[in-house]
Structures are given as C-alpha cells and as structure tokens.
Structure prediction request, 106 residues.
Amino acid sequence: FATASAPGAACVSFSPDGALLASGAADGSLVLRDAATGREVRRLAGHTKAVHHVAFSPSGRQLASCGGNLTSAELKLWNPAAGAELFSLQGHTAEVYRVCFDPAGS
Prediction:
C-alpha cells in the first residue's frame, strides 16, 4: 500500500469479518481499506508519531492502535465505522509496540 507520497504500511490487521484492512505507517497515518479491492475507505487522523500496531476487537466495532518514538507513546481506540477516535491514552515515556483485545472482547 505504498505510494509516491506515502510510505508503506508498518502494520496491518484484518477486521474479524474480513471486509476491512487497517494499516499503520511510520508517518503516523492510519488507513482503513476495503480488503477485497484495496480501495481506501477512510483515514483515521490522530497519531502524531509512527503507528506500530493495530488490532480490531473481536466484534470489529473497535480498532486499537499504538505507536510512538523513543520518548513518548500514543495508544488510541477508534470506532472504525464512523472514523471517530473514542479514547486516547498518553503519558508513556517510551514506545509501545503492541496492542490487543481479549478474545472475549474486553
């Protein structure tokens, strides 16, 4: 998913129903694509640093993302259908590389 104006994806995750693909990149971009066509569905704006990992909740109604650099990190929770940021957790003093949901959805 790289273009001349955007770097390639650093992380990807399929929605549980296989319809969407979320990708995060080193420039802080977070993009949702139609998994069948690769067409961009929406951009989720909010990360100011590299996105290291993305994960859909088991229901697919939420998307978690994390990233950062050597001095700070960002963890965010999104509503992928609306493209809305639901929650942002900041204050980590180092990078966060992984985020996940419990299989039960919590």
Remarks:
- Residues 49 and 74 are 8 Å apart (CA to CA).
